[in-house]
Structures are given as C-alpha cells and as structure tokens.
Amino acid sequence: MSYSAKYRIVFLFISLMMISLSPASIAASATEINIGVSETLKRFKQDVSGGEEFLKQAKGVLVFPSIIKAGFIVGGEYGEGALLIGDKTIDYYSTAAASLGFQLGAQSKSVVLVFMTNDALKSFQSSKGWKAGVDGSVAVIEWGVGEDINTVDIKDPIIGFVFSNKGLMFNLTLEGSKFTKIEK
Fold it and tell me: How far is CA 103 from the centre of its chain?
C-alpha cells in the first residue's frame, strides 16, 4: 500500500471520528445533563478542599460534566452543561472550541466555572455567545496540596476548574472556548 493510500485511510478514519463526535451526535437530554452536573459538583466538593463553602459564595456556577475533544492536526471540542444559581438549574449551555497544531486522539474533561460577582454573571447571561478571553477572563486557580480553597485570596470575577479522569488539572486555559445558551 502506498504512502498516499495510507494517508487517505488515516484521514478517512479521523474524519469519521470527528463526525461521530459532532454536537448532534452527543447532544444530551436535560435529565442527562442534570445528572452529570450533580455528579461533577459532588466530585468538585471531594477534590477541592473547602469547595463546598467556596461554592456557597458563588453568584452562579456553570458546570460541563463532559467536554469531548478530538483531533488530528485540526481538533475540536464540544460539551453541554447547565448554569446553576442557588443550586437551581437556570439554563443549559453548550461549549465549543477549535484548535490547530500537533494533536492526535480524543479525551474528555469536566469544567466548572464559578461566577463570583453579579456583574460577571449578568454579562455572561446576556451574551448571545460568550467567548472566554474575549467577553470575559477566566482565572484557573492553583493551590498547594492540603490547602483549603477558602484560604486563597481570590479577586477574579470568574474562576475555572478543569478535571480529567485523573482529577483536578492545573495550568490549563479555557481561552477561545465559546459558551452558547441552548434549549432543552
């Protein structure tokens, strides 16, 4: 088999993988999203020391239980989640992002965005498509093992937490991710 034939087969495989991960194929029902949100928040409270008390200070919490990312040179990611205010689901959102560069494969992550001010929350809610890094800055907080999140001096209006299958991940960016309200 020639080099170009192998390349075409790999390209076809990756194309099929990307199509199978398209938003329409992974769209979840409101019930599925709510179950995932509850489980993600439970995990957040277990993994982040002081997380439960920290969330009580939030004006709103946007939770994406599973964001799937796949790529071969060109990549994309998509996930659906819910905005909670006072432990009540207010609206459902999708997130999507594209990337270019050396990448091969697929992964899943969970994201929790915590809105600490009413202004940041209202700005997010009033947008037609809020883009991290453009419409608002999201700070990813780092702290040491055994440190309580409530002892960290947080002044940012929006705080982001990213989880992998292995737990809380640090030094990740959400820049370029677009969040759009969806109907469920």
Answer: 19
